[in-house]
Structures are given as structure tokens and as C-alpha cells.
Amino acid sequence: MYHTIVVIVEDKPGVLNRVSSLFRRRMFNIESLTVGHTETPGVSRMTIVVDGDEVSVERLTAYLYKLVNVIQVNDLSTIPSVSRDLAMIKVNATPDNRMHIMQIVDVFRARIVDVTNNSFIIEITGDEEKIEGFIEVLRPWGIIEMVRTGVVIMSRGTASIYPNGNGNGKAHQVAVAI
Amino acid sequence: MKLTGAQIVWESLLQEGVDVVFGYPGGGNLPIYDAMTKYPIHHVLVRHEQGAAHMADGYARATGRVGVAMATSGPGATNLVTGIATAMMDSSPTVFITGQVNSKFIGYDAFQEIDITGITLPITKHNYLVTDICDINHTIREAFYIARSGRPGPVLVDIAKDAQQNSYDWEPDGNPIQLRGYRPDYRPVSKDIQQALEMVYAAKRPVILAGRGVLLSGAVNELMEFAERTNIPVAMTLLGLGGMPASHPLNMGMMGMHGESWANHAIQDADLLLSFGMRFDDRTTGNLKTYATHARKIHLDIDPSEINKSVKVDLALIGDLRETLCQILEHLEPCNHSEWLASISEMKSESKTLDIQNLPDDGHLHAAHVINDLWQYTQGQALVVTDVGQNQMWTAQYYKQENPGNFLSSGGLGTMGFGLPAAIGAKFGRPDANVWLVVGDGGFQMTQMELATAAQEGIKVNIAIINNGYLGMVRQWQELFYDRNYSSTPLRSPDFVKIAEAHDLIGMRVTRRSEVEEAIQKAHEIDGTVVIDFRVVKEDMVYPMVPAGADLKQMLRRPIPERAG
Question: What is the pLDDT of residue B184?
Fold first, then answer.
């Protein structure tokens, strides 16, 4: 099962490497990873989709907290949240099928950002289901090239996950089954 | 004050109360070594940087203070790697300072350049690359803080040569250390303490498992108090030995692969396990699928990532062990488990018949005899350091520890060659201790060059080489599981007495049991480091043994030899 984790880290050289090395040596599979700045200077936000069950994600969370540059870890798969991926897809588009493709683009609320005699680049944002669906529909026309950013995710509602309710940046609860 | 980066390194070490560092100079850290001579910190020149790393580790294990080792860039740094990993696996507070090439050459494959921060990522608690002189002081302060706090461990600081050579108007950084991502201050909540108490009172066959956490946390008194008040027997891990006096009636001795059979039986029959600062390492549990299946489990540990890692537990109390035990002791009511203890005692007396100490003398010198005699003639008070393998297991079994901090051994990584340098480091940390090293002929050869360090420094370590002409533990496995196919285990060693003498040290050879006492007495009388070559039985076995993957109860026991006539 896929879990989408947000890792708030210090923006220091090598932090991405520390986190991805951890996944590798603890044998966790990274499905996708994206990182960028946050509203706080010096703090970056990583969104990682990892394949595992709840127990292994708890283990992963504990290991992440051991990294000195990791400030906070949240598994957002379990709370109401909005997740988005962005894809750019270069697809064959000849004069006879061009209209067809444009209709599909409309239906999916995607955008054409490049046009040539026989190709389009289509940009689409949405949750994973929507993106996967769009790619499958386009496939018969022949996909020339594709790039995806990976998922970013944000919890619904007013609160920000960082800094968390405790205010000290660490909210690691160990869930122990009885 | 206008200081160079190199000088700031020493100022920072002084600030941290460092009195000795172990290291080896080179191009990459020349400025640091140049500045060193004006500072009152003693430097121990080793013969291989691995020795420096193990010395820092041995120092840390013997004193509880942060051990420091230094090496130059490139090969100097990579030679530290085994020692850093050893410290990581056993949670030793250590700081490693390596030189690095000039920052403008980093990433260009310069002479003696190596990405040591990349290489040591998985084996350090944290590491730093310093290229700016202004970062040196606070980085070293942070490094020490991280090394000694929470679950201790090694921290590496890689300092570029230009940062060492630059200078600026420096003032000590007195600000409190604030690391956003590092808050090692967990504390259990009172509802969990309450639940723990209830589980303890409900148990009929409880066992305490005591590990290195007891010693790291300084919780020896609290462990004793808890065990005595609740009348619960205690089993130790290898690195937990000394956490409770071996002679204490509640102390069952070591558990696990080469532990005492009654301890392993008690664990498998228990209905409650209390893990105090131990991490359910595979050497202690045997087959995890069948491990203590009747027992509920409470895990007290400072590291949240150890909870439910190997063994699923029913309750976890995360925090400093001593503090947690103090909290529990405030409310803990006395209990009685005399029936349970009696059944364990019964198992003990059955086992005694198999102990080699109680078997008739067969005329050969056994390692177990050597160590048992050593224990006697040092009144069990020596600071004992072991290497790895059969020598290590026999020492754990036969040199009974009454006090904490006198048993140093590479447990997690099991690094051969750890012994000699660790013993040297321990002696620097506790110069008044009577340091005895027990090491095999294989392990000794891995780091024997550090005899020169001992000679140059004029420090005294007593070395007992358990010389059986084999890579003993591997040979044991080959005998038991590979049909005696001794592939690359027969070991031809140099004459260790001559090796000692080549270093201007005293060497002795012992081939009979009757000579053991005299050799030990003589070693105590001699002023410097002494090497004793104990020629023991070539094919000897550590018993009991839980084979890898077997249930803890499926121990191989010593076969009683047939008596002719």
C-alpha cells in the first residue's frame, strides 16, 4: 500500500542524500520523491510516496526522526488531504487525430503548452488517479515522451502541519498495539 | 583573538574537556597537528588509523566520556571506517575529526581526497563537512553534543584544509546548542507507567532483560532496586554484563546464542519480559518466530526506532532508562516470585555438571581455564577487554563481572582487532585500572602493530592471547555445520613472545595449567605492557550454543566425554 509522507527538513547541503540513503539502506522503496522550499526560509518540504504497510511506515518515521536535519514527519495518507502531481506528456498529434486529442484534453481540464505539425505537449495537474487515467487514454495515440514531478500533498483545513500543535517541531508518537 | 582554524579546533576540544586524542597526521590535517603542540591535550600517535578509532571507542566505553580520534584526508579517513562502524553499532560516544583537501578541490579527485562524509553517512549519528573557518567552533560543539546525548554514537567532522589555515578574530561561541531536528528528550507518560506496573503485578513468570542501556544510562542502582523489590530474575546481554553483580542471586547471567542455558529457558517460559536498554539483537533472541511466545513484553529504551523493530512489544516507555526506572520505583510495590525462581535454580544445578570448570582435568590447557584463573587472580576486578570470537564468548562466560564498566567488547559489529587498541584507549581513560586484554591469535594479528603505540606511550596493558592456531569461532561453525571443512581457518601465527620482545616489551609463553597463575602474577609485577601467549587446545568449543535460526531452547550442549574403563 502506498503512503504519502511529508518530511520537513533543514535546507542544508546533502539533506536530500541523507534522506534517500536512509530509504535505501533500510530497504524502503521510493515510489516518488519531490522537494522544494516552504514558507519558512531555511526549511524545505519533501513529499515521498513509499510502498509499505503501517508498521513499516512507523519504523521509517522513527528512522527519519533520527536524522539530525529532519524536523518533522507526517503521514498524510491517513488524514483528509489534497494531493497533486504534474505531468507533461508529448504525444503524437497529426492533422487527422488532433481534434480528438484536444477534446480529451478538454475533458481532463489539461492544457496544451506546445504545438507542432505532428505533436502536442500536454500539461496536466491532478491527483494520481486522474493523471494515470489521462495517460491511459492518451497511450493509443503514441506517447513520445513523458515527465512527472511526483506527488505533493497538503492536509485540508486551516492548520499547517508545521510547526505542529506541540510547537516544538517534534510530534513523534509511538503507536503500540496491545 | 586572531586564531587559525587549526587553533580553533584545539580551543573547541579544550572547551569540551578533552584530555587525550588518538590519531595520525598527514597532509590533510598538518595545520591541526602544527597547532596541537601549543595545547595541553595529549596526543597518542597510533600505527594505523583503525587503531585510533578503536582507542577512542575504548576510551569512551571505559569512562563514559566522548572519545576523540583524528586522521588525515583520503586513506587516513577511510582507515577509520571500521572503527566508526564499531562505535555506531554499540552506541559509543565518539567524535572523529578528519582533514579534508582545500575546499576548492573538493569534488575534483584531488590527491588524498575522499568523500568521507558520504562514506560514513550510514555509520555515524551525524557528520559535518566544514569549509568555513567560522563554522569550526560551533560544529565541534554540536558534534560533541550529538555524540553524548540521547542514544550516544559517533559523529564525524571533516575540516577542509583552507578552513584550518585561514584565521580570523575568534571568540568562543557560548550560545546554547539548538538543533531543530534533534530533540533527544523523550519521557514516558504517567498512564504508561501505570500500565507497566499493572503488567508487572500480574506476571507469574517475569524476566528482566538488561542491556548496554543500563550502563550507558548509569541505571545500575535502579536496576538492582527494581529487581530486588519485584523479586524478578535478570538476564544480561553481552554488552550488559556488569550491569548487575554476577554473584547476585537474581542474576541469571548472559542470555542468547552463547548464554546460560537456564537464562534462555527462563526467557522462553516467561509470561512477561522487561527489556531494559536492550534491543532484541538476533544474538539474544534466536529464532524470532518462536521467541518468548508466551510473554507479554515491556520495552524501556531511549531510541524510539528500536521499539517494535525486531520484536513486537505490548508497551513501550521511551526515555532515559534511569529516569524511567526512577519514575516507576516511586510507585512500585514489592512482589514475590519464589516458585518461579526455584524452578530456575533447579535448571542451574542441572547445567553445572556440563560446565568445563567442573569436569576433570584432561591435561590440556583450555581457554576457559585460563580465563577462570585470570578471574580468580585478579579478584574479578580487572578492566577486561575482549577481541571477537571464541575468546570473547569464553571471557563473557568465565570472567564474572561484579562491577559496571569493566567489560569492553565489540558486540554489534563484532570487529576482530578491536581488543588491543580498545584496551589501550581504556587505559588512557582509567590509568589506575588493571587492564587485561583477552584476544585470539587471529584478532591479535589484525591490530598487533599497536603494540608499538603502547611501547612508545609507556602504558601498561596485560595481554592474554588465546592461541589455538585457528580462527576459532569460524572453525567451530565449520565443525558443527560444514562437516569440519576447515576452509581458511588454520592460522599460522608468528612467535608472539618474539613479537613482544621486538617492541621491547615482555613476552611469556604458557602451555600448562600449572603455569597460568605464575604468568599472571608476573604480568602484574612487570612495569610495562606484557604479552602472554597461552597455547590452548586447538579444537575447543563454546557451549552452550543456539545455532543461527534455532529456537532459544534448542541449545547445543557440551558432550560429556566417555571415560575409559
Answer: 86
Record the cell numbers describing residue B360, joined without a space: 576433570
Do both A63 and A111 map to the same domain?
no
Contact A174 B304 (CB under 8 A): yes
At B496, which amino acid appears?
Answer: F
Any chain A CB within 8 A of the CB of B117?
yes
| Residues B302-353 pLDDT 10s | 999 999 999 999 999 999 999 999 999 999 999 999 999 999 999 888 777 7
Q: Please indicate whether the domains covering B190-350 and B360-535 agree at the CATH topology level.
A: yes
> Where are the extended beta strands (E) located within B249-321?
251-254, 272-276, 296-301, 315-318
Q: Which of B179, B182, B307 sits opposite A176 (nearest CB)?
A: B307
Comparing CB atoms, the residue among B126, B180, B314 nearest residue A178 is B314
Q: Where are the domains of chain B?
A: 2-169, 190-350, 360-535
Structural domain range at position A42 = 2-79
CB atoms within 10 A of CB A14: 15
pLDDT tens readout for residues B416-441: 999 999 999 999 999 999 999 999 99
CA distance B217 to B412: 18
Cβ <8 Å between B181 and A9: yes
What ipTM was assigned to the predicted interfaces of this complex? 0.92
Q: Which of B20, B96, B27 is nearest to B459 (CA)?
A: B20
Residue B50 is among the residues annotated as catalytic for this protein: no
- The answer as to whether A107 is a domain residue is yes
- For domain B360-535, which CATH number applies: 1.10.3720.10, 3.40.50.40, 3.90.1640.10, 3.40.50.970? 3.40.50.970
Architecture of domain B2-169: 3-Layer(aba) Sandwich (3.40)
Give every CB contact of residue B391 below 8 A, 6+ residues apart in sequence. B367, B438, B439, B440, B443, B466, B472
Q: Does A115 lie in the same domain as A72?
A: no
CB contact (8 A) between residue A59 and residue B315: no
pTM: 0.95
